[in-house]
Each structure stands twice: as structure tokens, then as C-alpha cells.
Amino acid sequence: MTAAPEQQARESKGLARGQIGLLGSIVIGISTIAPAYTLTGALGPTASEVGEHLPAIFLVGFVPMLLVALGYRALNSAMPDAGTTFTWSSRAFGPWIGWMGGWGLLAATVLVLSNLAGVAVDFFYLMLSQLTGRESIADLTTNVVVNVTTCLVFMALACWISYRGMEATKVVQYVLVAFQVVVLLWFAIAAFVHTADGSAPAGLAVDPQWFNPLGVESFSAFAAGISLSVFIYWGWDVVLTMNEETSGARTTPGKAAVGTIVAIVVLYLTIALAVLSYSGTGDTGLGLGNADIQENIFVALAGPVMGPVAVLMSLSVLASSAASLQSTFISPTRTMLAMGHYGALPPRYAKVSRRFQSPGYATVVAGVIASAFYAGMRVVSEDVLWDTISALGMMICFYYGITALACVWYFRGSWGGDVKTFLSRCLAPLVGGVLLLVFFVQTAVDSTDPEYGSGSQLFGIGLVFLLGVGVLALGVVVMLFQYRARPGFFRGETIARGRTTSVELEGEVTP
């Protein structure tokens, strides 16, 4: 049987086709990962765990992401669909696992939107404080009313741009991503110059041992590397959810996924080497081991490294979080569109704006949910918000892992006879998926400890565990409700469970 059912379903969703090319996809992928925002919070804690082996641990974290990306590329090549995890895992494992995979993606992306908006608020007022020289302006973020109001404005603006479709998204992302990358590279070059002329606090020469993962002293540091792979690399899969709107839907998104991850790891390694050479890992002054500066490394180092133009770093982190806020809308809205299209959610989620050819209803829903979540959590407790973001790592590992294993199972009939096919459709996604699912289980176990995360607890159980497992449990409840309301999807009437054989490699599907 030919691949017509999947292709016809893809073409009938109503999204604008062919609007994004390879470069545009990579730019949006980098935007969602948000390197400036991610690095300023990740460099310090990571260095405190692994010391001078920071580049090595970045490479360790890069491996499972690359392996999983190869699985995504293979699945997209066979059946490009905006539903990605939801559609692919439904095809491989059936509607129940497929629905929960889609829920994991939705929960992670929609709730992360609230965190990105909160970070944008913090750096917005920090930027104003630096520009005006009035430190009191930066303190406005502690005012709950001001904080929440500003966040809602940012969220509404990002939602509006996303509603207007991929063309508007692409234009905004080119500007914001180019700016943050230029500033990051400027920062790195300036740090290397200070190191070379002897004006850096540490002034260390780059040591090949920094790249040696075997030099990391403990297994916990390797676990931290896998953990970081979730947070510092997460977001590259957005390029797959745009596949129906991309030129060359079967090939371009897969290339963009790999290209995005490779570009990010090169950028991360460049910044890591610059910061290590300049600051070292001491626990005083500007050393990366100093607990007083670890929460926001760039705020501490921008002035000494960049001098009078240090405000550009604050602008860069603001641009990074704002760009990611806007581009992160892409994944949940396209997933909800697909779930509505295939009958896993009410049909109104499948509505597409006639003017902009974007998932209008789903975009508004994502914005409203993320805004309500941020406002509620910010009023209750800031710690609760950060614990929630920590718990999202479990969901990210969950849906990445499911998707990677879906690749292995879906292509089980086409492994033999070709080493390249075996590596890309079986071994690579299998190893990557297993690693992430093991980390999902390990995190779930560790987070039961009341001291995990912020130390918040309920009935002696860590709040991170309760939030992470609670959101997944809520997904089961919603799924059962949808089963009663829309049983067709769960009976396999809209997405047929299937597998491939060697014929698939020539463009045919056997259900």
C-alpha cells in the first residue's frame, strides 16, 4: 500500500506550505534553544560539578540529542507530519502511547512558555536599569503586579506574532537570533583577547584535557551531562513540527535538526572555552565556582569582559528569551492542530486561520494556558515555578525517548542489508531513546527526595516529583475523557498503526 493516507492527511491540514527553507529552519531551531538565555544559567552550575571538564560534559550531553535527532530525521523522511511525536508514536505503538507522547510534548512546551516569559521580564527591567543607571528599576521584577502584567504583555505579543504565521515568525527570528549570536561571539573573542594580553583573572591556556570525558571524576557528573542535554539542547525538534510548512518536507527538517544541534554545540564549546580561559573554576571572584555569580554568569562577566558595551549582553539574553518565547509556540500549536485533525482532541483545535494559514485556535489556547500558569505560580511562589520547570525535564525525556523508540519499532522491517540504515533507523535512536528514558526514571526516583529542586515538599515527597508525575497523570485523565468523547482515534480509525519494510525505503508504506 502506498504512502497516500499520510500524505493526503498532511496536505489537508491547511497550513501554508513551502514558507521555510533550510537556513530559516536552523535559525528557528537555534532560537527555540535560546543559547544566550541557556548559557547564562548553565555555565556556573555545570562548572561547579565538573570543573575544567566543562567542554567534555557539553559533548557528553550532545551525544543523546544527536542520536535522537537521527531518529526524528528518519521518521520525518517517511511521514512528514506536524504532529511529530504524537503522529509518529501513534503509527508505531498505537493511539494510547501516541496520545501520551503528544501530551508530554504539549505539557513541556506550553509550560516552558511561561518560564521564558518570566525570564524576559527579568532581563527587560535589568536592561532598563543598566541603560538609565537606576538600580531600583531592576527591582520591579519583585513586584508581583508589575511582573505578571509585563509577562502577560510579552506573552500576548509572542502569541500575536505566532498567530500571523511562519512568515512573520521567520522575520522576527532572523533579527533576534543574529543579534544574540553576534553578541555571544563578541563576548567570546573579548574574553580570549583578555586572556592573551594577561588581563584575565585566570588567564588559562586551553588544555586538551578539558575535552576528555574520562577526566570527569564521578558518574554523577556524567548524569549531570545527560541532564544538561535536556535543558541546554532541548528545542531543536521544533524544526520537525514545521515540516508541513517547509520546502522539501521530507528532507529539509531532518537536515535542519542535525544542523541546529551541530551549530549549537560549536557555539556552546566556543563560549565554554572562552569563559574557562578567562575566569577559571575558582570559588572566589569571577571564578565559575563562585556560588555568588553562578545564577547568572553573563551578568557578572559582561562588564569585565566587554567593558562599556556590557549592556549588549543583557539585551542579548532578553532577545534570546523573547525569541524563544515566540518560536516555542510552534511546537504545541502544531501538535494540537494535528491532534484535532486526527480526532484526538476536539475538532476546533484543527482550525487554521484563513488569512495567515496558521493554527489560530491552538495558538490562542497555548498562550492563554501559559499565561494563566505563570500568573498563578508567580502569585503562589516563585520556587513553585522553578520546581515546575525542573519537573518538565522528566516530560522532555519522556516524549523524546518515546519518539526515538518509535523510530526503532516503526522501521523494524527495514534494518537489514544496509549498515547506514541500521545505524540511523535502529542503533542511534535506540541508544538515544534508552538513555533519555533511563534518565526519566532516574529523575522520577531522585525527585521524590524532599530536598530535590528548591527543597519544597508535600507530605514528605519532593514537589518536583509531584508536579512531574502529576502533569503526566493529568494527561492520562484527559486521554480517558477524550476516549469517551472521541473513540474513533483510539480505535485506530484515523491513524493506522503500521510498520515499514524495505519497500518503505523506496517510498511505500505497509500498514
UniProtKB/TrEMBL annotation:
Subcellular location: Cell membrane
InterPro entries: AA/rel_permease1 (IPR002293), APC_superfamily (IPR050367)
Pfam families for the chain: AA_permease_2 (PF13520)
Major location category of this protein: membrane
Keyword entries, A-Z: Cell membrane, Membrane, Transmembrane, Transmembrane helix
An annotated GO cellular component: plasma membrane
Its membrane topology: Multi-pass membrane protein
Listed transmembrane segments: 20-44, 56-75, 96-124, 144-163, 175-194, 214-236, 256-277, 297-319, 358-377, 389-411, 423-445, 457-481
GO terms of molecular function: transmembrane transporter activity
Protein name (record): Amino acid permease-associated region
Organism: Kineococcus radiotolerans (strain ATCC BAA-149 / DSM 14245 / SRS30216)
Lineage: Bacteria, Bacillati, Actinomycetota, Actinomycetes, Kineosporiales
